[in-house]
Amino acid sequence: MAIPKIFSDTFVFAWDFLLTLTNIVTPSIKAGHVVPEGHAGAGGEWPEYVPPGEDDSRSACPMLNALANHGILPHDGKNISFKAMNETVRSTYNFAPSFCYFVPNYIAGILKKDYSKDTFDLAEISLHNGIEHDASLTREDTFHQPDQGKPHVPFIEELLQSASGKDSKNKNSTEDASHAVLLTSEDLARYSAKRRTEAKVHNPDFSLSAFHKAFGSSNSATLLRIFGGRVSDLRPFLIEERIPEGWEPSVRSRVGLTMAVFNLTVLPLETATERCTKAD
């Protein structure tokens, strides 16, 4: 089984590299047109938001939960195909097709499922130390809260209140002042370091491998690359897991955010987080 996976991964990374080159030589998508016509959210018009009910399945991932809350994925969060996850993440958040193929395949492998044939419930993605991990920015550790589908609002508010960036385009507009506050990479590194330090002290079962550290920094990078770090958008998205009306992804690359470009944000973020952790 190892040889086919090697060939598959090699193909995906080569594909991702070609898509990165494509983005370099093609014009960006015009603002207001990032979500394709005919897809949920086109023109900033998102389907109605309905909070999850008691029997609905939700995960540790706000992005997938938001898709379910808007009915872009099944609202009950159950019996979702990996291909549907691929397609909806691609059209909603403008990740590159290579990215949207690789991640669901990886999750299918963690869950010991077949990408092409099987389905999953959102809660299954919260398998501890799969892609879910301790020291999350938006969740209590599994030791304290087994249901990882529930955001921990105090963590989220503390994160958003740490935002120190300003959108220079809105700096002279009083009306838009509340929309001009941005999380920066340094803000995210500092708060990630704080969460790691505190979780290690308060969680007797704490674990955070190098892989999960990098995955945590990937989550932080998503807040920067897909949401532009904009606090006014991130507050409803992280707390209610609701996509704001009129929102579209910050990434306007023609074929979406590739893994190669994404890692240019992830790696410096993780380096800064490790530096801040050692300084604490």
Strand and helix map with partners:
Elements: H1 2-25, H2 62-69, E1 80-81, H3 82-93, H4 97-110, E2 119-120, H5 153-161, E3 165-166, E4 181-182, H6 185-202, H7 210-225, H8 231-240, H9 259-279
Antiparallel strand pairs: 1-2, 3-4
Walk me through the structure.
- This protein is mainly α.
- The protein has helices at residues 2-25, 62-69, 82-93, 97-110, 153-161, 185-202, 210-225, 231-240, 259-279; strands at residues 80-81, 119-120, 165-166, 181-182.
- It has a two-stranded antiparallel sheet.
- Helix 1 packs antiparallel against helix 4.
- The protein is globular.
- The relative contact order is 0.16.
- The mean pLDDT is 95.
Give the gist of this structure.
The chain is built from 9 helices and 4 strands; from the N terminus they run ααβααβαββαααα. It has helices at residues 2-25, 62-69, 82-93, 97-110, 153-161, 185-202, 210-225, 231-240, 259-279, and strands spanning 80-81, 119-120, 165-166, 181-182.
Rg (C-alpha, Å) = 18 Å
Biggest sheet, spatial arrangement of strands: 1-2
Helix content: 40-55%
Which residues form runs of ≥5 with pLDDT under 50?
none
Number of strands: 4
First-to-last CA distance: 43 Å
